[in-house]
Amino acid sequence: MGGRRMIGVDALTTMRRGRRRMSSRTSGVVLSIVAPLVLFVLLAVLWQWAAATFKSVLPPIQDIVMDIADRPDFYLTNLGVTVEAALLGFAIGVGAALLLGAAIVHFTFLRSAIMPVALLLNVTPIVAIAPALVVAFGFNQIPHIIVAALSAFFPTLINSITGLRAIDPQALEVFDAMAANRREIFFRLRVPASLPFLFAGARLSVTAAMVGAVVSEFTGSSKGIGAVIVMATTYLNLPQMWAAIFFSAITTLILLGLVGLAERLIVRW
Hints:
Layout: H1 2-53, H2 61-70, H3 72-106, H4 109-123, H5 126-137, H6 142-165, H7 169-177, H8 182-216, H9 225-234, H10 238-266
Helix pairs in contact: 2-10, 3-4, 3-6, 3-8, 3-9, 4-6, 5-6, 6-8, 8-10, 9-10
């Protein structure tokens, strides 16, 4: 009888713990949904107050929504141009950064040669680069892709170097004891260990690529979200300007979410 009572007590305790865990998870999910909604509502109220008080600075939200609803194709078409340049630049910049990061890890003397140039490119204002690229390559997508690539390059380079070097010394000793060559150490030890760093760099790079693509379209472009912002500024069309900013911000958040999803699927630890 005593054993049965103990089993019953243990089962009841386990059920209570399970209920507590479920309730805590449910409350956590509800909080993660409700808290942002409350914040967005407060921001919307604050926006409407600012729009009514400072009419030359912010348009009412309903004006922005109506402008988007009246011509969604206009915004989506220009957004597609910007996203295309941003993604191509992201792929080129990240690819070049990964190759250079791997080369620097294997040949340390390259660090002294490459890093000063990379730092110089990183601190050079994008607005200053874009007109020169337009003069060199003309009024097409190439200057915007280059700016996006340069914007995405540096964050991935720094994170790739840090990640490829951040390996467990004991694990490296094991690989050396097994007579593993450089290729095996790189792909089986360095690359898996660097994945969290690489995805952290990818999140920074995809944001920088999108910003770079938009900013580069401020000069020498008639298409793209950046060109829409410039056009709206010229004609003091506040709803169009903020609608374009809204589209660029939402798109950047979506790209960040895709990078985060890829990280969850690939990085299992």
